[in-house]
Amino acid sequence: MSSSVAFAGVLASTPGFAPTFPPLAEEYEDSLLSSDLKDAFLVHVEEVRRFAQQRVGTQEAEDLLQEVCLHILERNSPDPVAHPRAYIFRVAANLSVDLARKTKSQLSFYDPSAQDAENLISPERSIVCALQLRRLESALAELPSENRTAFLLNRIEELTFVEIGERMGLSSRTVERYVNKAENMLREKIE
Fold it and tell me: What residues make up the domain containing 100?
């Protein structure tokens, strides 16, 4: 059995590690056999896993660990690595940064407001939002119970007037009037 196959076998038997390696080709064997990286990776795999969990969370840690392993397998430099453990952790750190950038990029693609999210929350803005929330809570508490219930079911639970009417034993038209009245009362009290 080749050393690369043994390397993959040990990783596959590591508790909690379920890699899906590409077929191990001879190109991997040549680059891997000449380095101490495989031994360092096997010795430090649990440390790297914990490091990955801290950096990217538990769900993404296994993927990051696989990427580190793949990076080591694909390393083509014939030069030995002076500090294999440090090299492995540097690879893991760099890949975690890449993953964070990718995730942030995907979020901003789907939600343009995510690009400015860091700039929106200042201490002043936080105070203003807290005051607005208190006024809204106070105004909601002052609403008649039917209006408040219908409004919250519509706006928070996102139920239709028909669904709310079924829950409350009212017609959808009555529910609509309750929600509209609640909106008007809240607008008056908050502004």
Answer: 3-112
- What six digits make up the tokens of 145? 């119970």
How many other C-beta atoms are found inside a 10 Å radius of the C-beta of residue 154?
A: 20
Written as six digits, the tokens of 148 are: 């408040």
Tell me, yes or no, whether 100 and 163 share the same domain: no
Amino acid identity of residue 110, one-letter, is: Y
In contact, 28 and 73? CB cutoff 8 Å: yes
Do 35 and 64 fall into the same domain?
A: yes
Helical residues (DSSP H) of the chain, grouped into ranges: 3-12, 26-33, 37-56, 58-74, 84-110, 117-120, 123-142, 145-155, 161-168, 172-190
How do residues 16-28 score in pLDDT, each as one tens digit? 554 444 444 444 4
Segment 38-88, tens digit of pLDDT = 888 888 889 989 888 888 888 888 888 888 888 888 877 778 888 888 888
